Amino acid sequence: MTRPVDGDRSSAKGQAPPLADRLAIVTGAAGLLGSRFSRALLAAGARVVGLDVTAVMLDLPGDAKSDRFTSLVMDLSDERSVVESASHIEKEFGAPDILVNNAASKSSDVRAFFRPFEETSAEIWNEVMAVNITGMMLMCREHGRRMIEHSKRGAIVNIASVYGVVAPDQRIYEGSDYPDLGGAINTPAVYSTTKAAVIGLTRYLAAYWGQAGIRVNAISPGGVASGQNETFQQNYSRRVPMGRMAKGEEIEGALVYLASDASSYVTGQNIVVDGGLSAW
To answer: Alpha-carbon distance 160 to 117, whole Å?
Structure first.
């Protein structure tokens, strides 16, 4: 069945925020992008439930109401945890209008995660898959069906990566170092594989739920500056037409657009926010 586009949300005092009265769920809300996405959704008027494996302590701007943000602990690699959290959210807040699948894992052994492909272990591979794609599937299953059951015209936004679109240029990692992660970094095959799978799942669900009024899209960010050493940042920037890495806030606009009525006829798309890296 099809559903009409929502009517005018403006008020006598002026235009209402684009996500006023919407309930949004964000996974990986404690992370670099997850915390930014949560704040961006709050600024756009939404109520936000932030999910992570640890409680989310969100640094809110002065004009944001903390009573519109709730932190819940959930383990995406555990199906029972996903199901129970979905039931809790439905009971406490109702079905979501917006689901942002942002969480991604580097496994419990970060240094093993960055080993060369020839040394990849099935254990690390499966651990990352369990969060990056199986956990995302479970979130879509649980919250997507609730959107339909509650007649929500929902928006699901899955966070992929430019490296789900193109292969990483291994040359940019020469001399790389990320002190917070204990040494040299790269983009492992399991990361690229899961992010390509995210795009495939996005397109499948967009077609599957289109008649139910549920829009499903993806965002593929390029590299975001987050503490990498200068050598890596220079190497990466030379690979980008705009000549620099992304700032975290530069991904937020695409998210708010896909979550709002501004994209009411957009589904099954992957918006690449990479400064042009994938253009050459």
So the answer is: 21
CATH number of 23-279: 3.40.50.720
Count the neighbouring beta carbons within 10 Å of the beta carbon of residue 21.
11
Domain coordinates in residue numbering, the chain:
23-279
Q: How confident is the model at residue 61, as a pLDDT?
A: 57
d(CA 227, CA 205): 35
What's the gap between Cα 208 and its chain centre? 20
Give per-10-residue mean pLDDT for the chain (280 aa): 39 78 97 95 97 84 70 97 98 98 95 95 97 98 98 97 97 88 90 98 98 98 92 96 96 98 98 97
CA angle 195, 75, 254 (to 5 degrees): 40
Question: Maximum distance among all alpha carbons in the chain?
Answer: 63
Range 123-148 burial, b when 16+ CB lie within 10 A, else e: ebbebbbbbbbbbbbbbbebbbebbb
Give residue 239's Cα distance to chain centre. 24
- Size of the chain in residues: 280
Close Cβ partners of 145 (under 8 Å, ≥ 6 residues apart): none
Report the candidate in 65, 81, 66, 211 with the shortest Cα–Cα distance to residue 134.
Answer: 81
Nearest to 50 by CA among 63, 224, 153, 33: 33
3-state secondary structure of 79: helix
Query: Mind telling me the catalytic residues?
Result: 191
